[in-house]
Amino acid sequence: MCETEGACTGCGGSSRRDFMRDLVGLGAAALATLAVRHEAAAATIGWVSARTRRGTTVGYAIPAADGVQIDRDNQVILVRWQGAMYAFALSCPHQNTALRWRESDGRFQCPKHKSKYSPDGTFISGRATRGMDRFAITREGDEVVVDLGVLHEQPDDPAAWDAAVVRLK
After folding, report:
1. What are 117's strand-pairing partners?
2. What's the whole-model pTM score?
């Protein structure tokens, strides 16, 4: 940055006005990033049991707010996030270790090899090579119904994996 505004002739430095404009722009970008991160981190975790069971399907109440629920009995992770519901296999697709929700980071992580996933199951980083495995899911009234007999792996059938979601909006 030049010492006196307008005195610079060709040094490539910025004026104080340019510096302040850039600083304000960076601050706004940082705040937007924090807001998105806070929205994901606001999702809480809880334990849940199926309300209904019919053959290979289990039904769960639709949560009122974003969050993560784990059904240990059926090895299912239910996620309500940004107007959508997902049902995932509890285990990491890399080596079947139970995934953990990291509330402070707003993401899932495998404790064994540190693979990371977004709340919608999309792979972020780590040793895994695909997103979290999604169960087929539908909506019936005030419940989401998960078919435990139909599990979609992202690379094997990306269209079915993408479709394994219930939109709530």
Report:
1. 108, 123
2. 0.74
Which of the two residues, 128 and 32, has the higher pLDDT score? 128
Six-digit token string for 13: 């430095």
Structurally, how many domains does the chain consist of?
A: 2
pLDDT of 26 above 60: no
Under DSSP, is residue 133 helix (H, G, I), strand (E, B) or coil?
coil
Q: Smallest Cα–Cα separation from 149: which of 67, 54, 43, 10?
A: 54
The backbone torsions φ and ψ at residue 130, rounded to the nearest 5 degrees and listed phi first, read -155, 175
Q: What is the mean pLDDT of residues 119-143?
A: 96
Residue among 30, 35, 37 nearest 106 (CA): 37
Angle 165-146-46 from CA coordinates, rounded to 5°: 85
34 and 51 part of one domain: no
Which residues form the domain of 85?
44-167
